[in-house]
Amino acid sequence: MSDAPASRGLRATAVSHDYTRGERIADAAVHFTGIALALMAAPVLILLAAVFDGGAPVVAGVAVYTVGMFAMLGCSAAYNLIPTVRWKELLRRLDHAAIYVKIAATQTPFAMLIGGAGMGWVIGSVWATALGAVLGKLFWPARMRRLSLPLYLGLGWAGLMLMWPGEGAHALSPVSTGLIVTGGLIYTAGVGFFLAKRLRFHNAIWHGFVLVATFVFYSAIISEIGLRAVAAAG
């Protein structure tokens, strides 16, 4: 009996907008494109990390990034594309929670590449915050409603800002840093479309921004691994 309210809450229909068929098709195209590209890109990234870096921390960091990428894409596709009503609220919670996982996972390979004693504390703090937010989204979504967007943006920018200071081996290259900033700006700009609920295709556009930003961060990881390999060989 005590579990009945919680069960009904998970099966409740999430508040959604009346998207047209064209909007749903466009959103599905963005999701399927993202998943297809991720399936091709993930093994390439792990292979490059293993061949050109070879260090267990970097390979593990890259693997964590790919897991976070698939978690975000998979949960987003499930929530936005599966027409079920019964579990819509649960899928919504998973979708929103997976964003925190993706944010922390994106920062993990950069932290492993930079290294240094202090970087463990940085990435540990990022993950602790992200996992706390995940629990909040899953079990207390109403309390997280007003905090979600500021926390998404704050966690993303704060974590990356903490990684910038450094010299020599403990610094990211200008190329990677530029890509990171570009990716962050794309994510941030996309939020405007996410909030523009009355704009047609706003959901597909928002997810398109997410996909492009993901590709930019992916490129930043590859460029950093490649540049460090070239420097080591020279």
From TrEMBL:
One of its GO terms (molecular function) is metal ion binding. Zn(2+) binds at residue 207. One of its GO terms (cellular component) is membrane. It is found in: Membrane. Signal peptide: none annotated. Its main location: membrane. The keyword Transmembrane applies. Keywords: Membrane, Metal-binding, Transmembrane, Transmembrane helix, Zinc. This is Hemolysin III. It comes from Albimonas donghaensis.
